[in-house]
Amino acid sequence: MERRYQCKNGVVERTRFCVGDRALPRSGRRKGATTAREQERNLNYAARRLARLLNNNFSEEALLITLDYSGSGLDQILEKLTPRQQALIRASASPVGEIGEWKAVGKIRKQAVELGEELRIAMDAAIRAAEHQAKLYLRRIGRKIRNKAVWITADIDGSTGELVRIHHHIPLCPEAGQSVSWDLLRDQWKLGGVNIQRFYGRDYTPLANYLMRQVRHRPDAKKYSCSRGLEMPQPEERIVLAAHNEIRTPAGAQVLERQYNEEHVGQYVRYIMRKKERRDADGLQKNQRDQR
Fold first, then answer.
1. CB-based burial of residue 129 (10 Å sphere; 0-12 exposed, 13-18 middle, 19+ buried)?
2. 22 DSSP assignment
3. DSSP assignment of 166-185, as one string?
4. What does pTM read for this prediction?
5. Which residue from 55, 75, 84, 103 is spatially nearest to 209, judged by alpha carbons?
6. pLDDT digit string (tens) for 192-226?
7. Measured between alpha carbons, how far is 227 from 151 in angstroms, rounded to an integer?
8. Within 10 Å of residue 21's Cβ, how many Cβ atoms?
């Protein structure tokens, strides 16, 4: 069996896998703790879904907005938590510099780590309060410009896995005909700093992987949210008799990633089609016309 996803920006994903004669329907959700291997698989699955969402709906005009919290901004999102929860969150890390990096704080930090379950509940409550502030921010932006957006609330370091100050990543793309002011985006956030970057390249899978690595595993919680109207590319499936044969890509396609799983005889390839040169009325490409 081969499954294919075609995104509007030209990125194509194809997965080829074996389906036995005795294949059974997927069983119901298993109760109990999720293993580290399952968490990693779920993380990769979420990153691929986010990448398809970005590749299918966002253009090169999109922006990546990062919102962080100052000390007073953190106080505002923690004010609805219990005093005990506030103390645990503040003790778990301390701010260093303006970019929101955190470091351990001695004996209190050790006590907070030992209270792992209680700290987790406190962090989950803080994340819910922070997500509410992110939604209010996007609502204010939406009154000024029509846009498509995805927002991710993160609280860990993607490289080390350590707790960091809660912050938001918001890929945002103005709709056709809309212009966006960076000053407007900054002025609508009063709880801390705002960093804005443009999207680069045509494949946003590396960006999706980067964002998902900063989301802590929370059972039964979504890793990201998105505005209405975003379309997920629909899979196309076809039967392949020789699943072990290497997937061949179209001529001129740029292969971005290729994987082969010997254990399950599965393949995955992601590639992007080159943009077609526009031709004028004489049938000449732009570079040929310039040479004349």
1. middle
2. T
3. EEEEEEEEEPTT----HHHH
4. 0.80
5. 55
6. 999 999 988 889 999 999 999 998 877 767 889 99
7. 9
8. 4
